[in-house]
Specification:
heterodimer; A: 2 domains; two-stranded antiparallel sheet; 2 strands; B: 0% strand
Chain lengths: 227, 70
């Protein structure tokens, strides 16, 4: 086939070289020349919106795949169904209107990381706190758990927490009333996913237990014994 | 913050007796024990760092082990 234009009826077919040349910037007509300023602004806004949407899509994809998540020694919980052993990711649920057994344990530190990074900078303080509340873990620098390696004592704590919170709703568990910081009592709320992973929700629950222990002298075992 | 300041923050004096008290308490935690030397040796300095970093939990655990309100 030579480099000539072939005409087949009403449709003109160009060969590859000619087509490429036809679409170069030099030969491509400036479409905006014939447009009004309003139309040009519209095209610009449309292009910006498309770029923004594409960028947002890329961000959400990265968020889902953990591209933007900083490396941390503390495992972060997935947004999962707050039921025992649930593992299906889902959007964060709205807490129900009443009762303690709804939503997740509060992040009382208000740390933007979602858990108290001052209190739990590494695994050792978590281990020490677990041990102080009667959970048999060794105190060392090893990660307490990971997604592939849940810890049975963390599972036990998560179950205990859920039992206590549900027990409070059922009036089966009672908190002491004569405490130094009664405002800390309202933090006993939220349900944990029982997965054996010391993620941010579990750390927040542990902080509630620890703060009520140090400030209000509430033994965690005194609550779990009531369930 | 110096190790001495951390030790004081944890509730001990920096005198040899205070260091020994810390070493004994640290050994109650079930962590890798340190020798009770009454001195700020390398192992004790590491233990102080760990305990200070975990100070809220450390104090709670110490209370529990000492038979406090836990």
């Amino acid at each position: 086939m030579d480099n000539t234009t072939t005409t087949t009826g009403p449709v003109e077919v160009l060969d590859a070289n000619e087509a490429a040349e036809t679409l170069t910037d030099a030969n491509y007509p400036d479409e905006s020349e014939g447009l009004s300023p309003g139309a040009k602004v519209g095209i610009g806004l449309g292009a910006t919106a498309a770029l923004g949407l594409a960028g947002f899509g890329l961000y959400k994809l990265g968020q889902r795949n953990g591209w933007w998540t900083p490396v941390s020694p503390i495992v972060i919980d997935d947004e999962t169904t707050p039921s025992d052993g649930g593992s299906t990711p889902k959007a964060p649920s709205k807490p129900k209107a009443s009762g303690r057994a709804s939503g997740k344990p509060p992040n009382i530190s208000l740390d933007p990381a979602g858990y108290n990074t001052i209190l739990w900078p590494r695994s050792a303080p978590v281990r020490m706190a677990m041990l102080s509340q009667g959970y048999k873990v060794e105190v060392n620098e090893d990660a307490l758990s990971s997604k592939d390696n849940p810890h049975p004592q963390v599972t036990r704590f998560q179950r205990d927490w859920n039992d206590v919170i549900r027990g409070l709703d059922k009036k089966q568990v009672r908190l002491p009333s004569d405490v130094k910081k009664s405002s800390l009592l309202r933090h006993y709320r939220g349900i944990l996913q029982v997965d054996g992973i010391a993620g941010k929700n579990t750390l927040n629950a542990l902080e509630v237990v620890l703060s009520n222990y140090t400030d209000n002298a509430i033994r965690w075992s005194s609550l779990t014994e009531q369930t | 913050m110096t190790p001495q300041q951390k030790l004081r923050e944890l509730g001990y004096t920096t005198a040899p007796a205070g260091v020994a008290d810390f070493q004994r308490d640290f050994n109650l935690l079930g962590s890798k024990p340190v020798l009770v030397t009454s001195e700020l040796d390398v192992d004790t300095l590491n233990a102080i760092t760990l305990a200070f970093e975990s100070r809220v939990a450390f104090k709670a655990l110490r209370e529990r082990k000492r038979g406090g309100h836990a």
